[in-house]
Design a protein that fits this description.
This protein is α+β, with helices and mostly antiparallel strands and 199 residues long. Helices cover 34% and strands 38% of the residues. The protein has six helices and eight strands. The protein has an eight-stranded antiparallel beta barrel with strand order 1-3-2-8-5-7-6-4, surrounded by five helices. A hairpin with a 7-residue loop joins strand 6 and strand 7. The mean pLDDT is 96.
């Protein structure tokens, strides 16, 4: 099982944070057992706009906990986070259920649609049939620990153009087979974030 930890953070010096990540931070985290990490700036998303999502992919929840502990006890990482004014607003861990296309880009844009209901990977191929017209990648994840929140999973998409992505998403949401499956599982969208991948 692959899991993803997402830390929603406030960052005072984003350029410095990105530079530090590219120069040593990303490799330091990979050396701690992380499979992939990225930084995305939330550009649209209500009260979340201006925050950053820092994601870490791990082999298991145990690995995610150990990795978080390692990051938060590393002197250089703590110094960097202090220098850049990084503070964690929320941290969640999710199980990656399924993915299609390129889901680990180093640039471009992404969306995260918060979902409620019984999240599963059923229908991802039908969804991807629509989404690939405007997106480069699609990932479905289910919340393992996300605090006292109404959402139970995320649908994440990655693209070069947000307009193209949104057009493809509208077609996917309008698909009658997808609507029937969502209704059967009581799956509903709760909100969307648009982010720019910066590292």
């Amino acid at each position: 099982m692959s899991v993803m930890t997402i830390a929603v953070t406030a960052v005072q010096d984003l350029n410095g944070f990105v530079d530090a990540s590219n120069s040593y931070g990303k490799q330091r985290v990979l050396d701690m057992g992380c499979k992939h990490t990225s930084i995305a700036k939330i550009v649209m998303g209500g009260e979340a706009a201006g925050l950053c999502g820092v994601s870490f992919e791990w082999e298991s929840v145990d690995a995610a906990i150990a990795g978080s502990n390692a990051i938060n006890s590393d002197g250089q990482m703590l110094q960097m986070m202090g220098d850049c004014g990084v503070s964690v607003v929320r941290r969640s861990v999710l199980e990656i259920l399924a993915e299609r296309g390129e889901t680990r880009p180093t640039s471009g844009f992404g969306t995260a649609v918060y979902m409620s209901g019984n999240i599963s990977a059923e229908g991802i191929d039908n969804g991807w049939r629509h989404m690939q017209e405007g997106a480069n990648g699609l990932m479905i994840s289910r919340a393992i620990a996300n605090g006292m929140a109404p959402w139970t999973g995320l649908i994440m998409t990655f693209a070069d153009s947000v307009d193209d992505l949104l057009g493809a998403a509208a077609n996917a949401w309008a698909d009658t087979a997808m609507q029937a499956r969502n209704s059967m599982n009581d799956v509903k969208p709760l909100g969307r974030l648009i982010n720019e991948i910066v590292a």
